[in-house]
Design goal:
The chain is an all-alpha fold. It has 7 helices and no strands. Helix 1 packs across helix 3 and helix 2 packs across helix 3. The longest helix is centred in the C-terminal third of the chain and has 33 residues.
């Protein structure tokens, strides 16, 4: 008898599908009382589960969750116009920025370092505040979904 016992997976395979079980596992089970007791326990458990009535779920999960969500708002014309304006503004900034990138870098060389640091710092502060507001908005929305 070896001192390494079979894994639960091997014992379950033995109980459920003995014909597919490895010969070493069958030989170990024949010689090891502990593993044989585990196999007997699994057999009892499987038999008891077969006798249990099937549970039926009476509700549809999707419908339950959708009922708790706030009604979605339709996109207003104002939202569509805003998206178009932002896209155009981005194009107006990105296209010339790409075309004149060398000249832009030369302009940046003449800007004082302190001014660049102030612009970067202000941008970071704005990003932090907007990120915090976005996080708070997300947390409020998640609270609305809690099922308590």
């Amino acid at each position: 008898m070896n001192h390494h016992h079979l894994s639960d997976t091997d014992i379950q395979e033995y109980v459920l599908h003995r014909e597919n079980c490895r010969q070493e596992a069958i030989a170990h089970l024949d010689a090891c009382d502990l593993c044989m007791r585990k196999a007997a326990n699994y057999s009892l458990l499987i038999e008891a589960m077969a006798l249990m009535p099937a549970t039926a779920v009476d509700m549809e999960t999707t419908a339950s969750i959708m009922a708790r969500l706030p009604a979605g708002r339709r996109r207003s014309r104002r939202d569509s116009v805003l998206v178009c304006l932002l896209a155009m503004a981005g194009g107006v900034i990105v296209v010339p920025g790409y075309l004149f990138r060398r000249s832009f870098l030369q302009v940046l060389e003449n800007v004082p370092a302190l001014l660049l640091c102030l612009v970067v710092a202000a941008s970071l502060v704005i990003l932090l505040f907007r990120g915090r507001a976005l996080l708070k908005h997300y947390q409020r929305r998640m609270k609305m979904l809690e099922f308590s």
